[in-house]
Design goal:
Layout: E1 7-14, E2 24-30, E3 49-53, E4 61-65, H1 70-83, E5 90-94, H2 102-113, E6 118-122, H3 127-133, E7 139-143, H4 147-150, H5 156-167, E8 172-178, H6 184-197, E9 203-207, H7 219-230, E10 236-238, H8 242-246
Parallel strand pairs: 1-3, 2-5, 5-6, 6-7, 7-8, 8-9, 9-10
Antiparallel strand pairs: 1-2, 3-4
Helix pairs in contact: 1-2, 2-3, 3-5, 5-6, 6-7
């Protein structure tokens, strides 16, 4: 295994978003991101240290040096799976944006996948990188960025369309964060992209979480958005950030 592994943290928690919401996972968070979303609450800056949960689910962390080898990560997995047999459903590879590290992932995901299924959380902007790793991924959670909530440029619509076409045929779902300023036109464009790739792809509407823990969308407007999406897609679900409601990592 030639490529060093750079992660920002590794911990065990409940998946709070999307198709695997409610599943216990081992989270491996990678550094760096190519976007700067207004609602992002994650520190993804590059560093020479990472945080490792001292015991899975404890919420207590050790600070350890980087880089790691795939063998070191694999040993940690073995220890956690031995401590809590059957507790974890899968491994969530998250960020930042994991696909910025596609070459590294292509080397160590096959080894990790021998232990648990792989769940990739991505901002859906690196279709070229996805092509290199999707054979090692069991679930893809694509976070489609809306200008109204993420503050990202309009050009991302075309980029998201390319990504979802690349992901088509995989076990992929789309998540959008929606708020009071999200428009019906935005939801219409999300539906267009999904329908152009695969009409069966599930869409998750996630209410915006504000910094003071309030929800940034009224129930009435959330229902309007859900109604518009459901008039065009077969599988539309509303799921808030469950891990925040639980006070989990």
């Amino acid at each position: 295994m030639s490529k060093p592994v750079y992660i920002s943290e590794m911990f065990s928690s409940i998946q709070g978003e999307g198709m695997l919401a409610g599943r216990r996972q081992i989270f491996v968070r990678l550094m760096e991101c190519n976007l700067d979303c207004t609602y992002c609450d994650t520190d993804f800056k590059k560093s020479d240290v990472f945080r490792l949960e001292s015991r899975p689910g404890s919420g207590l962390f050790l600070t350890l040096p980087l880089p790691l080898s795939c063998h070191e990560i694999s040993e940690t997995f073995d220890g956690w799976l031995s401590q809590l047999p059957g507790a974890h459903h899968s491994v969530s590879i998250t960020g930042g944006e994991p696909l910025l590290h596609a070459d590294m992932l292509a080397e160590w995901l096959p080894e990790i996948r021998k232990k648990l299924p792989i769940h990739l959380e991505t901002n859906g902007t690196r279709h070229d990188a996805l092509r290199r790793v999707k054979q090692y991924v069991d679930y893809i959670s694509m976070d489609m960025k809306l200008p109204s909530t993420a503050g990202c440029p309009e050009m991302l619509w075309d980029v998201h369309a390319l990504f979802l076409r690349e992901a088509s045929g995989s076990n992929v779902s789309v998540k959008v964060v929606v708020g009071d300023h999200t428009t019906l036109d935005e939801i219409h464009r999300v539906c267009d992209i999904i329908l152009s790739a695969d009409a069966a792809v599930p869409l998750f509407l996630q209410p915006l979480s504000l910094s003071d823990d309030r929800v940034g969308i009224t129930t009435a407007h959330l229902f309007r958005l859900q109604e518009r999406a459901s008039s065009r897609l077969a599988d539309v679900r509303v799921i808030p950030q469950m891990h925040k409601m639980l006070g989990a990592l």
